Amino acid sequence: MKIKIGFIGMGNMGSLLLKQMKLLDNNLIKFCIFDRNQHKLEQNCSGYNVIVCNSELELIQKSHIIFLCVKPNEYDDLLIKIKNFNPNIIVVNITIGYPLKRMIEILGNENSKVVRVMPSTTMVTKKSVIGWTYKNLTPKQIKLFNYLFKYCGNLYELSEKEIDIVSVISGSLPAFIFKFIESASDGSVYCGLNREKSYQIIAKTMISSAQLVLDKIASTTELKNQVTSPNGSTIHGILELEKNNFSFAIMNSIIKTYEKTQKN
């Protein structure tokens, strides 16, 4: 029997998860989808061999695992429907700040199988960082989840405290990085470099620099020192960054984003 994976909500994240999971062996898995917005279904799922459900209830009853890819304010009502019509399903929450404890509380059973996973748009590279945590899954089900995210990236098992922090890094940090690339490109264009060349060179420089960190060649401080000579151009550039509170801005952007997730 095929495992049926259901998605409620076919917006950016729901459709991207489906796209990456469709790369898996279709002999093992069947996908069910539902979205109240018919246009989203047609726009994001055209050409996919999936079961398009006519209601949330139909999808809940057909699925073995269900991903809630909707706004957090819709979670409570959906969990109540799941409790009433398919209490044995594995429920996956992909939003920030909605704890497993709350899911179990609404489902009304301490043995409910619940998961929090924090995907990001970088999944399309198949190298994304994805944090997850869960309660009451069997070893076989844990193995299944690792398989489901095979073409999404690196799945990191975390505590629930850690997952909110990692979700900021893996989910929000890409936007900060894109902003950095955009600004660095503007500076390069101002100095006379072609826009497209600047994007390519900046992005590849970031990849190669990050690889040095991953390979543990040296500490980030040592790596920085290797390219900063006395009174050289690089240290002058770093001085300009620090004049504008670069280090504080990066630290504070992470802290404030995390604090916002705790208020949702």
TrEMBL record:
What are the BP-aspect GO terms? L-proline biosynthetic process
| Presence of keyword DNA-binding | no
Location within or outside the cell: Cytoplasm
Q: Which UniProt keywords apply?
A: Amino-acid biosynthesis, Cytoplasm, NADP, Oxidoreductase, Proline biosynthesis
Please write the reaction equations for the catalytic activity of this protein.
L-proline + NADP(+) = (S)-1-pyrroline-5-carboxylate + NADPH + 2 H(+); L-proline + NAD(+) = (S)-1-pyrroline-5-carboxylate + NADH + 2 H(+)
Question: What EC numbers are recorded for this enzyme?
Answer: 1.5.1.2
Q: Molecular function (GO) terms listed?
A: pyrroline-5-carboxylate reductase activity
Q: In which pathway does it act?
A: Amino-acid biosynthesis; L-proline biosynthesis; L-proline from L-glutamate 5-semialdehyde: step 1/1
Q: What class of enzyme is it?
A: oxidoreductase
Gene Ontology CC: one annotated term: cytoplasm
For this chain, the family text in UniProt reads: Belongs to the pyrroline-5-carboxylate reductase family.
Q: Which HAMAP family match?
A: P5C_reductase (MF_01925)
| Protein purpose | Catalyzes the reduction of 1-pyrroline-5-carboxylate (PCA) to L-proline.
Q: What is this protein called?
A: Pyrroline-5-carboxylate reductase
* Lineage summary: Bacteria, Bacillati, Mycoplasmatota, Mycoplasmoidales, Mycoplasmoidaceae
Gene that this polypeptide is encoded by: proC
